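for the record, two folds in this file. i put them one after another cuz i was lazy. first one right below, seq on top, structure tokens after. the second one comes after a little note so u can tell where it starts
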Amino acid sequence: MSFLPAQGDGDLIFSGAFAVALIYVNYAYTGWNAATYVTSELDNPQRNLPIVLFIGTGLVMLLYLLLNFTFLSAAPIAILEGKLEVGVIVADHALGANAGKAMGAVLALLLISTVSAMTMAGPRVLQVIGEDFKLFSMLSRCNSHGVPMSAIIFQGLLALLFILSSTFESVLVFSSFVLGVNTLFAVLGVFVLRWKNHSVAGAYRTFAYPFAPLIYLSVTLWTLVYVLLSRPMEGWIGVAMIVVGGLLYKVSANKPPSTE
């Protein structure tokens, strides 16, 4: 296939189908911001965190593009359309059935590393929520080694619920939609902070402001709207969960103890 622009690509890129497809791309990039979850464990985070994010995001982008280039070069696109196990299909087509099985095993091992990374980062977020809000104080409990065991167990049970209750595709669309909504408001918060002039000494200044966050907000909003239109069940369940979360926040919100 041709990797150069062709006639009709513009219509495709601005179509609803392409917008929904970006949900899967966003999922592939999930984790680029995970370093922010462990900011308290970084040395000199004001200097090092932007470096980590730029290098991490750039590396993930390069690897993602190279992987897709490899897949599209090694197998006809017709046999990849609508398939989830693309890596296995490509290896099977290019190198034979045994290679496909080996690739499946390698991908399974890679997923284990992803689980390990999320087990480290995710519970830290829940732990901080427990520290800030009395309603969720149980999540802040740590063992004698400082590991947030309550948050890890809760996250594990939630993952099992997703596995047992729906298909991989539905969970992927739902979780990516919720992540998209959250990042939409997080980036929108940059404008709110600037408008309210909440400047913090030594804080990171947003790159290419206001153009970079505006581009991100436009693409994300466009994607979310089309997900709601084409996958309403997953989208509206995500909206309902966020609304419930907002209500719980209103009920349980309290300021952290003063350190003065």
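(here's the note) second protein begins now
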Amino acid sequence: MPFLSHFGLREHPFSLTPNPALFFGGQLHRPILEMLAFALQRGDGVLTVVGEVGTGKTMLCRLLLQVLEPEAAVAYLHAPLSDETQIARDVCREFGIPVDVHDDPFHLLNDFLLDQHSQGRQAVMVVDEAQALGRPGLETIRLLSNLETETSKLLQIVLFGQQELDHLLRQHAMRQLNQRIAFRFETRELNTRDATRYVQHRINRCSKDGDMRDMFQPAALRLIARHSRGVPRVINILADKALLAAYGEGSRIICRRHAIAAIEDSPSIARPLPFLMRWTLPRMAAGA
């Protein structure tokens, strides 16, 4: 593609589809992944990862699946329905358990988990967008967490969700499940230093040469970090628009004015620019 060739890139560095190959651990996300792996290895029953939209939950979810799948039996559900029986059926299907209309999915699941346990194999259920479960679905999670032997859990459960998941779990009716959560983790926004390193990391990973530290000028990086509020998804959007602004000018260097154009083009997600910065934009647009 001419766009990628212009910047010396192999692939788009700021795609909104979570790509584990571009994972940037930073000071927050890598420790969460390591603690999740440790807690699951230890046999803890229910774990939650909660965070605002765009802070990297799905990326962590996909990385966790990569870590688990070679060794464990894994059931992955994305934004499941809150129907109790349907959730159990979906978990069965994810584990490869044949389930008929008249079968009791909880019974089939229990037999499968006992068989996995006898083989010394871990069974893990991972739910992304778990806030979609609602109260009925979370009650099903509680029932599934009851599946255990005298000494260990048969099924370990990891819930990834938005802040609404925490609000649901704090309700009085959810106290039984809430008390079974061994660890709670929270994805947060990147600080300014990590946000600039995040942009550079993704550029380097996608470049043909491997090191392109001079593509984004420091002033552009600082603006993107500040006006994205450190939210990785918003950083991706602003950095990608800045690349497009530079490409439109025929420049291979992303400077301050390109970052300003990207921010100004994203009023619904980016922190507003100061008035004096906005005042300079018409001249830049005319030049483009």
